[in-house]
Amino acid sequence: MALQRKHMLRVGAVVACVGVFLAGADLAVTALIGGQTARQLSELSKVALRRSEAAIDSAGSILNRLIAKGPMDCSAIALQALRLHVYQGTIIKDIRTVDRDGAVQCAAYSETLEFDNGWARRDEMFKSADGELRLFRVEQFTGAAFGVMRDIDAQRSLAAILRIDGNLLDVMPVGLRAESNVTLTLPDGEQVAGYHPDASAKSPAQSVAFTTVSDRYPLQATIHVRPQSLSARRDLAYLLTMLAAGTLGGVFGLLLASYLSRPVDPVAELDRALAANEFKPYVQPTFRLKTGDIIGCEILARWEKPDGRLIPPMSFIPLAESSGRIEKLTWQLLKTALRELQPEMKQDKLFKLSVNITPRHLLGDRFIDDLRKTVASSSVSTRQVVLEVTEREELADLDKATDVVKELGELGFRVALDDVGIGHSGLSYIQRLGARILKIDKFFVDAITRDQSAIVVVQMLVALARELDMSVVAEGIEHQEQVDALIACGVEEGQGYLVAPPLSLGRFKQFLDVRRVSAVPGRAAKPELAA
Questions:
Q1: Average predicted confidence (pLDDT) for the chain
Q2: For the whole prediction, is pTM greater than 0.90?
């Protein structure tokens, strides 16, 4: 009888929650869809701006190198150097030497001057936040072009004409491309670059605009969308929202029905699980893209409940971070992985074990001492341990972080920047921190076989890594086509489901045994080898 009442209670909770969620969704769907669309388009405008900032950063670095190499005096040697950098780059169309007032003295390709219909004076240009660069619009017969200028000395400057087009600004989803455009404008409202799939289309007379302003450069990115196109999506969005609401109502009802069997205090349950060593290190292999050779692995946390359930990290990592338990959890996972994988790491001295470290943990007072003791107790070389610091969370004290990374390097540890390209860091951040590895986020890997702009971003990151003597690892690889595209961009290492999903330590050891026998040289391992 008690079981029957319990069953009826669960069914009633599910039905009630589904009804409440559907009713609430029906009332809130308009605001929900409007807010969701606005957030999506605002984020896309940020993506367009970040890509443009990266292009300006790249141009600034090239101008710096040219200035450092020698005098830009319009001599044959100087012009040859300009042409070489234009030829080698993907962002710059032309480089010109200008006088103090901004007037052009010579160009890498003098023929390009014939396309100019107007050239900005120095007082018409806009300074970057650090005062090192000036941005301006170049009037050409074919349309507006985007210029970046850096001073050589008190009399001369170098100006680069950038290629910012659909490769960088094509950020809109397929359903909105024909009804929208993306523009880059200077503070005076002048457009310096734009993108619309239909080259003959003009900006809609009436549009909804989403703008992001750069805090580093006098530049803003704006997405214009026809209001009618947003309205046209509401019928489908309504049905999808109601379906999601019903599903969520059912899930919430199940959670509500089982609430009494769940711990009252989730933090106390976290402490209990830590004391019982229920958090287990799962690992995902890192491999060489050209050969498929396994060169290391990354530790990923899983919670193995006493009843056999496996809890994914997103269900407990945020709580562990906010409650201050993440440090203890990290040490527990690292100690277990080092102990279990010690034979493999001793057999292969080049094998690297990576572990994720939060920025707050990295800056902790005892972090370096605790890390040294943990690794020393396992009799594993510090050169085989990689610390991955995520770019999604901003470092509170970059100066201190730089000192910590330097000291870790002196001890033999390697530091990697995780999720590069979608987080807080800019080029100066990456350069100052002193990390030795860049990990390209899955966002770019997913798009690399279908989006030219993703290829451009990956190539820029690879070029940056080479300049800073860093290695590059691509995350989230699922298809051989992605491997081929990444190799073409210069990436040498990666990880993802193509080779193996996250594995328990026992299954990972079996996986390594299979790879030693079955791996085929010259191509990444087949997914079935991970089974």
A1: 84
A2: no
